[in-house]
Amino acid sequence: MIQRHQRIVFWCLVVCILGMGVLLAVGRQRGRQRIEALAAGDETPLDAPTAMAETVTLDLANDADGSIAPASRQIALPQEPNARARALIDHLIAEYALPGSAHALPPGAAVAEVFLLPLPLVGYTTDSSTAATKDGGFRPTLPVGQTDPDPVQPKQPGGELAVIDLHSTFVNQHPSGVEVESLTLRSILGTLHANLPQIEQVRFLVDGQARETLAGHADLLRTYPAADTTSGANAANEGQSN
Amino acid sequence: MIVLDPAHGGVDSGSQISDTTVEKNVTLALAFRLRSLLTARGFSVVMTRDEDAAAVPNAQGSAMTLDDRAGIANHAHAAACLVLHATPSGNGVHLYRSELEASEGQAFVVPWLTAQSPWLAQSQRLEKQMATAFSRAGLALVTSRASVRPIDSLTCPALVVELAPSGDDADSINDTDYQQRVALTIAGAMLFWQNQVQPPARLEAATKEAVGQAAPSDATRTQP
Description:
The complex is a heterodimer of chains A (242) and B (224).
Chain A: H1 4-41, E1 53-62, E2 67-76, H2 81-96, E3 111-118, E4 124-126, E5 141-143, H3 144-147, E6 160-166, H4 168-173, H5 178-195, E7 199-206, E8 224-225, H6 231-241
Parallel strand pairs in A: 6-7
Antiparallel strand pairs in A: 1-2, 3-6, 4-5, 7-8
Chain B: E1 2-6, H1 23-40, E2 45-47, E3 55-56, E4 59-63, H2 66-76, E5 80-86, E6 93-97, H3 120-136, E7 141-145, E8 158-163, H4 176-193, H5 200-222
Parallel strand pairs in B: 1-2, 1-5, 5-8, 6-7
Antiparallel strand pairs in B: 3-4, 6-8
Helix pairs in contact in B: 1-4, 3-4
């Protein structure tokens, strides 16, 4: 014979178990609803969007014979021209940082920024050919692009000047020598010309400042023409000039 | 007259060729060898520096700038100006002429940064002649164009001569036999070049005619 108090305890336990089961089921259901609500409101993609890889031409330098030869690579590049130019140069320098490179350069980010400026460069300068006004006012101004001859004039409509701002860490570690420095610059110029033909002229800065040379030799103060710098093109030019 | 410009000097050591060798010492050593060989062949030689730290003439104590070097070379009215460099990369000798576009004649007022333009045709001929001499001497050679100051400001047939190691060992650049071989080749090429170089005075006369023809149109263009 089961005693009365034992029956009470038994039924109390049964009620508690059922209550806990209901609580567990309700809590689980609420948790699921909360996660579904979060997923419905958050539009962050699981993977970053990637551009389609495209074929680009890198003008690769070779220290052994001082040559530059074109090479095709499949690279995903951004569509925005400034970012595209910067990505091209970054890929080019990364290629040189690989072991066994024919033009060994230090690894790391080389380019801080690339700015593409439409030519002719438009600005204003004081017209020194005229006298100041009688009341001591300013001299009239002239558009720079109209009075300045090359190098600010475009050869083709839509021509652009690329200003490449290099990192000082890259420049300070760059090997020193006429050949090795010239090859780096010509390689960059040729690569930009091959993939972004609207770039006609190129200027270099280092950490946003003008610098005399790359590593003691190649002139960084002048404006370079973006042109085909491969050895084949140079040989053709030599033939024409003779 | 030949102008030799041993690049760098003083606090500017140039490139580090090896643990014990810096570029400024190699260029000066090669310049001394060249000076001796050229003088023995009857040339007058002007060097932009003949000691470690170059100083500006008439301004003792002032460090020489690249423009000062160009000024010395341009005042010499030289048959050739050789800017000497050295590098640990590559082999043999690298010859460079200016990357400027060649121009037909010298303007009445010579732009300092592009003064080499009218002389580029002669610089190219000198480069070819010297390349032939190096090939005959059996020395490895690279010829190209480069923007290395102060070559763009020189008013003479001008080349950058960059000496690289003779072999895999960077210290081979200090080998006296190797340097002597290079210097002998250059001196020999200069001997042939002196009979072909167009004297600056004649070129100046031709330039004046060209400027005389160009002047009216320039004047018209600049009139308001």
